[in-house]
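Hey, I was hoping to borrow your eyes for a little while. I've dropped the whole record in just underneath, so have a look:

——
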Amino acid sequence: MTIALYDVCEHCEESCLASPMGIMECVRSSELPSERVAADLRRRVQSGEWAAGDQLPSVAQLAEHYATSRTTVQKSVRKLAAEGVLVTRHGWGTFVAGGPQGDH
């Protein structure tokens, strides 16, 4: 049985669906799921939760955390890698840019 959780949305200031991890699904937002995930990953890097060189959780772990598909997470990671926020190393994982593993 799935229980829907609702909270006041920062986007539209109405009651919108919140995932179990607290990620809001705004009923009025036209933002794609991959954009929402990318925005939260970017926020986590900028806040210092993940420092330069830190390895991010696996795509599967992030997909579970955000209650979304692995494809959505991969798209988000590619976007942030293109922006220079993250670096992906085949066979190693994804890292915050600027550290030992995150150097270009």
